[in-house]
From TrEMBL:
Gene Ontology terms: biological process: protein folding
GO cellular component terms attached to this protein's record: cytosol
Residue span, Activator of Hsp90 ATPase AHSA1-like N-terminal domain: 29-161
One Pfam family here: Aha1_N
Protein name per its UniProtKB record: Activator of Hsp90 ATPase AHSA1-like N-terminal domain-containing protein
Family annotation (SMART domains): Aha1_N (SM01000)
Family classification: Belongs to the AHA1 family.
Gene3D superfamilies: 3.30.530.20, Activator of Hsp90 ATPase Aha1, N-terminal domain
Coiled-coil ranges per UniProt: none
GO molecular function: ATPase activator activity; protein-folding chaperone binding
Organism in which the protein naturally occurs: Anopheles epiroticus
Domain of life: Eukaryota
Length: 326
């Protein structure tokens, strides 16, 4: 056992108002779940989305499942939150009332607000409903993301208070120099932790001042597989939302039209459909969340159906893509 004055200073109980957690060394935790539910209800319930003569209102929070905590460890603030939210909305267009849902399955510290998935659906389909669905998709999602961003900022601001306790010298006002701000850390599991090393590319002329981007090592992959099925069956497996959901075993976003978005595995894989030829060809741009911003792989999937001598149908599946390798 160390003598007085010879041990780690974190072991020594100093004079403090609470007489605990010297120098903020030990783990402390606050339950932010009740506060979060009240805050999310205040921000979302009754929220009005209006622009360009159209207006929709969040009428009810149909589902609000999850939890949130704020933690302090070694003087660092760590926030955990995970929410599954379903909102009911309504609007009116051409004297027709339209109702639907907005599903937010992955509001968590693992995703930035602009990466949080929001899926818009309708209770019934007609021209007025499709008009307001497009409005909610293009305008409503961005406005709802701003409300979610407000929740995250206020969570961190409110629950940072009291987690980082002042040291004895700070209490007595004898600490010299400017005080450091509390550190904030967000932990996330992630889908693929591997990072890609980038090499800065500089042009030959005026190389000292002109940086034009980053360089990645790229490889083109081509793969051919044979399936004992019809081409339309394989096409359905790759494009039908219920079948893709069964494969990924999680909620997916799947907009099967040119320029439509898709999101799989909680936002860790995302991209767009660039070309769709039913039962014959699919072209996508997609990326891992951990890839450098703006970098996408182009994937071309070609389906060719052949009938053998014994009339057993088979489908050749050919996929090619260019992906970055570290």
């Amino acid at each position: 056992m160390a003598k007085w004055g010879e041990g780690d200073p974190r072991w020594i109980v100093e004079e403090r108002p609470d007489a605990t957690n010297v120098n903020n060394w030990h783990w402390t935790e606050k339950n932010a779940t009740p506060w979060s539910k009240d805050k999310l209800k205040a921000l979302l319930d009754g929220f009005v989305i209006a622009e360009s003569g159209l207006e929709c209102t969040i009428t009810k929070i149909d589902k609000l499942d999850g939890e949130a905590t704020a933690n302090n460890r070694k003087g660092k603030l760590i926030f955990f939150y995970e929410w599954n939210i379903v909102l009911l909305w309504k609007g009116r267009y051409n004297d027709e009332e339209v109702t639907g849902k907005v599903t937010i399955p992955n509001l968590s510290e693992e995703n930035d607000v602009d990466e949080v998935e929001l899926t818009v659906s309708l209770d019934s389909s007609n021209p007025a409903a499709e008009k307001l669905k497009l409005f909610m998709y293009n305008i409503g999602r961005d406005k709802l993301r701003k409300q979610l961003d407000t929740y995250i900022r206020e969570l961190k601001a409110d629950f940072a208070k009291g987690l980082i306790l002042p040291k004895k010298d700070e209490i007595n006002g004898t600490e010299s120099g400017p005080q450091k701000k509390d550190k904030e850390t967000v932990f996330a599991s992630g889908f693929n932790k591997k990072k890609i090393d980038l090499e800065t590319v500089v042009s030959s002329e005026n190389a000292a001042n002109k940086t034009v981007g980053c360089k990645l090592n790229l490889k083109e992959l081509t793969l051919t597989e044979k399936f004992q099925c019809r081409a339309n069956e394989l096409f359905d497996a790759l494009t039908r939302e219920d079948m893709v959901t069964a494969f990924t075993r999680g909620h997916v976003k799947h907009e099967l039209f040119k320029g439509g978005d898709f999101i799989y595995f909680g936002g860790n894989i995302s991209g767009k459909f660039e070309e769709i030829v039913p039962n014959k060809k699919i072209v996508q741009t997609w990326r891992y969340k951990q890839w450098p911003s703006g970098h996408y792989s182009t994937v071309t999937m070609e389906l060719e159906e052949k009938v053998s001598f014994h009339l057993n149908p088979s489908c050749n599946f050919r996929s090619s893509e260019t992906v970055p390798f570290s």
